[in-house]
Amino acid sequence: MTAMDELSLAFGALADPTRRDILTRLSRGPITVGALAANYAMSRPAISQHLAVLESAGLVARTVSAQWREVSVREKGLDEVSEWIARQRADWTERFDFMEERIREKRREQQRSEK
What we know:
- This protein has a single domain (about 5-115), classed as Winged helix-like DNA-binding domain superfamily/Winged helix DNA-binding domain (Arc Repressor Mutant, subunit A).
- The protein is an alpha+beta fold and about 120 residues long.
- It has five helices and three strands.
- The chain starts with a helix and ends with a helix.
- About 70% of the residues lie in helices and about 10% in strands.
- The chain has a three-stranded antiparallel β-sheet with strand order 1-3-2.
- It has helices at about 5-15, 15-25, 35, 45-55, 75-115; strands spanning about 30, 60-65, 70-75.
């Protein structure tokens, strides 16, 4: 899978408000699936489906220890999303800075021609 495909999966997973809320809760530390599901007015299988989407996008990891199934944030997945956003922000900032400088140049030229 290419990096762009992985980003598409990540952004698709992040598009859902419940999944974003799950990630927010997991940012406080790993939690069992049961404890996580207790925070939502939906069935445990529905939470498991949300977790499956997050897991396939590389944003969370599930581990099994005895009868406990624990979920945690997979920082590498979030880092890749953050890095992509940072690159886009830097590109747009550079473009806006260039455009702002061109506008200033045009205004200075216009002011000179009006004198």
